[in-house]
Design a protein that fits this description.
Layout (H helix, E strand, L loop, with lengths): L1 H4 L3 H22 L5 H20 L1 H7 L2 H27 L2 H8 L1 H10 L3 H21 L4 H27 L5 H20 L10 H26 L4 H7 L2 H14 L5 H16 L6 H13 L15
C-alpha cells in the first residue's frame, strides 16, 4: 500500500476512469439474470464485504468524532442512492449518454461559483451537449433520463463528500472512511433493493458475477479516487473527470456494442470539452497558501502558482 501511495495522482485517476465504467458495463450483462436493483444491491454488498475483511472499518468509526460520523453517514447514503439511480439509468440509456449527463453539475457549479468568461464558455459547450444526448433519448425513455440527472446530482455530492473524507487525515480518513461508508451504504440500500437480489442466491454464476461487479465497480475505482483526492485539490480532480464520458463511450462500444450515433458523439464531445474548459475558484486555504508563500519568497525564487494545485 505504501508503494501505491507513492504513485502520482494521475495514475490513480486513470485506474479509476477505466474501472468506473468497466464494472457497470459488465453489470448491464448481468441484468439478464438479476433485476436491476438486485444488481445494485449485489455491487454494494460485495464491496462492503471486501472492505470489511480488508480494513475493519468499525475501528475507524469508533475512533471518529461526531462530525466525522455524520460525514460518513452522508457519504454512505449518497453511495447507495447513486448506485441505484445509475443502474436504472444505464438499463434504459446507453452508458456513454448517462456518463455525459453525470458531469453536468460539475460544470454548472463551477459557472455559478466563479462567474468568469472561461466558466461561462464551459457551460455554453456542455449544455448543448447534454441537450443533444437527452433529445435523442427523452421520447422513449423519460424515466432513464430523469434518473440519469438524479445520478448526476448524486455524483457531484460523491465528489464533494469523498474529497472531504480524503482530506480529513487521522482515523477514519481515506480508504478507512470509504470502507465505513460502504457499510452504511449497505444498510441504506437493503430496504430499497435487497429483495431484488434474493433470486441471485440460487444462482452461483450471478453471485460470482455480482462479486466481480462489486470489486471492479466500487472497490478498485473508489480506492483509486481516495488516493487521488488525497493528493489533488477538488478543482484539479474535477478537471480530470473530463476523461470519464469518453471512457464510458469507448467501454460501451467494446463491451456492450453500443455504437453511438453521430449526434451522440457530438453531444459527448461537447460535454467533455465543457468539463475540460471549466475551472473552480481557488479554495480559501489555497488562496492563503499562495499569499503566505508569495510574501515569503525572494525575487530570486519566484513562487510557482502550479504547486498550490498539486499539493
Amino acid at each position: 500500500m505504501e508503494r501505491a501511495r507513492s504513485l502520482p495522482p494521475q495514475a490513480y485517476f486513470v485506474g479509476s476512469a477505466v474501472f468506473h465504467y468497466l464494472g457497470p458495463a459488465f453489470a448491464v450483462l448481468l441484468f439478464a439474470r438479476v433485476d436491476v436493483l438486485g444488481v445494485a444491491w449485489l455491487r454494494i454488498a460485495a464491496a462492503a464485504a471486501v472492505f470489511a475483511l480488508w480494513r475493519r472499518p468499525w475501528r475507524a468509526l469508533a475512533a471518529m468524532d461526531r462530525d466525522g460520523r455524520w460525514l460518513l453517514a452522508a457519504w454512505g447514503t449518497v453511495l447507495a442512492l447513486m448506485n441505484c439511480s445509475f443502474y436504472i439509468a444505464i438499463d434504459r440509456l446507453p452508458l456513454g449518454t448517462v456518463a455525459a449527463i453525470e458531469f453536468l453539475p460539475v460544470i454548472v457549479l463551477a459557472a455559478l461559483g466563479a462567474r468568469t468568461g472561461r466558466n461561462f464558455g464551459a457551460l455554453l459547450l456542455a449544455v448543448p451537449g447534454v441537450y443533444l444526448l437527452t433529445d435523442v433519448q427523452i421520447g422513449g425513455e423519460p424515466l432513464g433520463v430523469a434518473l440519469a440527472f438524479v445520478n448526476a446530482a448524486l455524483f457531484a455530492m460523491y465528489i464533494v463528500l469523498g474529497h472531504k473524507v480524503a482530506q480529513r487525515g487521522g482515523p477514519g480518513s481515506g480508504i478507512d472512511g470509504l470502507a465505513a461508508s460502504m457499510l452504511i451504504a449497505l444498510v441504506v440500500v437493503t430496504p430499497m433493493s435487497g429483495w431484488a437480489a434474493v433470486p441471485a442466491f440460487l444462482d452461483p454464476v450471478a453471485l460470482l458475477a455480482g462479486l466481480g461487479v462489486g470489486i471492479s465497480s466500487s472497490v478498485i475505482p473508489y480506492v483509486c479516487d481516495q488516493l487521488a483526492m488525497a493528493k489533488l485539490t477538488r478543482a484539479a480532480y474535477a478537471l480530470m473527470v473530463a476523461l470519464l464520458p469518453a471512457t464510458a463511450t469507448v467501454i460501451g462500444i467494446v463491451v456492450l456494442g453500443q455504437v453511438p450515433t453521430a449526434v451522440e458523439v457530438a453531444g459527448v464531445g461537447l460535454v467533455v470539452a465543457g468539463v475540460a474548459l471549466h475551472r473552480e475558484p481557488a479554495e480559501p486555504e489555497e488562496v492563503a497558501e499562495v499569499a503566505d508563500h508569495t510574501s515569503a519568497s525572494s525575487p530570486a525564487e519566484p513562487f510557482e502558482a502550479g504547486a498550490a494545485m498539486t499539493r
